[in-house]
Amino acid sequence: MLFLGRLDWHRNGEILYEDGYSTTLIANEAIRIIENKNNETPLFLYVAFNAPHTPIQAEEKIINNLSDISDKKERVYAANIITLDREIGKIIDAVESKGILNETIIIFFSDNGPVFDIDPIAATIAPDILDSKGNTLGLKGSKGSAYEGGIRVPAVIYYKGILEKSLSNQFFLLMTYYQHYSEH
């Protein structure tokens, strides 16, 4: 399937022509910003990966290492998530190398539940576009829905030495966290 579009990579108003896998390119840009950060001023860095949004793609070498997963779409999806995890790890490593991990709040969250059955017309016209995997574990709804299956997503907050390790099913609104932690 051919996707037509425009160049979306920009830095300071200039178009960037970069080859590569978008998840890696996004992580590389975040790392560049962290490495060039002035340690005297705070940094707010919002890193919005496209993965695992459609079209679900991954590096062949990672897909090939997952031969124990028989379903091709699940194998590609798993490889996509492995790459995302690897690149997040590189960003955290950059924060640690810069010596600012102890004063850094890391928040990871998903934007919505999985995609399925939300656009029956698109599913009929272009079924290969809706190639996402996911599971709501029995919750009603999915992406685009206000039901729990569309809005109950994982979130992780890491603040070394400040927040204790715990698990919660408490409702979490990111906007309130930004306001609270921006004062620290």
Structure description:
With 184 residues, the chain is mainly α. It has a single domain (10-182), classed as 3-Layer(aba) Sandwich (Alkaline Phosphatase, subunit A), CATH 3.40.720. Helix content is 35%, strand content 8%. The protein is built from six helices and four strands. Strands 1-2 form a two-stranded antiparallel sheet. The longest helix has 27 residues, at 72-98. The termini are far apart.
Which helices and strands, and how do they pair?
Elements: E1 10-11, E2 14-15, H1 22-35, H2 60-64, H3 72-98, E3 105-109, H4 120-125, H5 148-151, E4 155-159, H6 174-182
Antiparallel strand pairs: 1-2, 3-4
Helix pairs in contact: 1-3
Summarize the structure.
With 184 residues, the chain is mostly helical. It has a single domain (10-182), classed as 3-Layer(aba) Sandwich (Alkaline Phosphatase, subunit A), CATH 3.40.720.10. It has helices spanning 22-35, 60-64, 72-98, 120-125, 148-151, 174-182; strands at 10-11, 14-15, 105-109, 155-159.
